[in-house]
Amino acid sequence: MQYLSTRSDRPLAGEIAVPGDKSLSHRAVLFAAMAEGTSRLAAVLDSEDVRASIAAVRALGANVDITAAGDRGLELTVTGWGAEGPRTPDVPIDCGNSGTTARLLLGILAGWASEVTLVGDESLSKRPMGRVTDPLARMGASFESPTGTLPVTLRGGGLKGIDYVTPVASAQVKSAILLAGVQASGRTTVREPASSRDHTELLLPAFGVPVGRDSAARAAWVDGPATVRASDITVPGDPSSAAFIVVAGLLVPGSRITVSGVGLNPTRIAYLDVLDRMGADIRIQPTEAAGAEPTGTVHVGYTPELRAVVVRAAEVPALVDEIPVLALLATQAAGETRFEDVGELRVKESDRLAAVIEALTLLGASARAEGDTLVVQGPSELRGTGLDSHGDHRLAMTWALAGLAADGPVTVSGFEAVDVSYPSFSADLAALSANS
Ligand code: S3P
Fold this sequence. Notes:
Blueprint: E1 3-5, E2 13-17, H1 22-34, E3 38-44, H2 48-59, E4 63-70, E5 73-79, E6 93-94, H3 99-110, E7 115-119, H4 130-139, E8 142-144, E9 152-155, E10 163-165, H5 171-183, E11 186-191, H6 199-203, E12 212-214, E13 219-224, E14 232-234, H7 239-251, E15 256-263, H8 270-277, E16 281-286, E17 295-301, E18 306-307, E19 310-311, H9 323-330, E20 333-339, H10 352-362, E21 366-370, E22 373-378, E23 385-388, H11 393-405, E24 410-413, H12 425-434
Parallel strand pairs: 2-15, 3-14, 6-7, 10-11, 18-20, 19-20, 23-24
Antiparallel strand pairs: 1-24, 3-5, 4-5, 7-9, 8-9, 11-13, 12-13, 15-17, 16-17, 20-22, 21-22
Helix pairs in contact: 1-2, 1-3, 3-5, 4-5, 7-11
């Protein structure tokens, strides 16, 4: 599907609640599927990625009833497989485009003596799985994956805890190992080179599994085997989806937007700190937490004069999904913006490093890679062009925002990729535009 984005002659205005957090929605569905008893989940993101997790746990024997589906996302009743363990499915489990589904399921299934094959779409089938299967194999699971990518066939059970130092700061890797640790005997510890999002550590205790943490050492552990018990969870709005709305507000003159009910977990909102350093008019108002997850409201006002910033390697895990949209905004900032050590972008839903440089160049901006550092020189007048989403939801939304700032129309092909994380993105933008 092609999307046509043109410069807006009206500011974006008003209040909006973005859909449920994708990372938390996956975890709520997966942990409820592992649990003894029936969980009730509310405000779960209704998107292709989360639907992949729901279909996967159903195939593995969890009972998922969708009791409501509407503006407030999905309401689910999930009865998990508990102590019986997952059923062995007759056909491979299709994880679609979702790295979180695939990697977290590998960890969950590693604990059980069944043989399961995971497959994914073209993009997911190129993404590295060895970063998860290597530590899980050390715990005792066995894998067949000739290329280190999906399809992966797994045989689990009889796991022993390990103390593992991950080579990459990845919440998917950390979560997979901790989830395997739930079924393993003894302590399973994961240590990271930089802190990745900590949703698994915060949500597992709500399902009755204590998680030990040493923040200074960037370590987390579980003692297994542990019993996972049903829980009632309400998912806050996705700060990564909110980032697109916030940047839209910064690109369209005169805009003033309030994003309410959004997750404010510090391991997810480093982009707000970067925007603050760029001089953007941003205000954060914490409200009541959703369980262990901090939430609140973000106010943004159009800011004509933004300045370039340096985004350091240690910050990257806490804004890894926001780099494309921050790079777009950096084209409007005075000076050289540098995103250090962002090599991980090459193995996301697309090669985001190459795609961002290509698209910003087509838009008439100046962007290049210096090794693993992404460099954007601003400010630039953007021009209209045709851009390809590469089947990547975050690129599709970033390119759509480019059209709001360019002096000619931007067409985005493959725009349907937005359904992976933010199906109502264009409707939400249109509603904010209609408010002014
Ligand atoms: C996610 C972790 C991140 C992120 C992805 C979701 C998660 O991936 O990019 O969109 O839910 O744990 P990595 O763990 O590979 O960095």
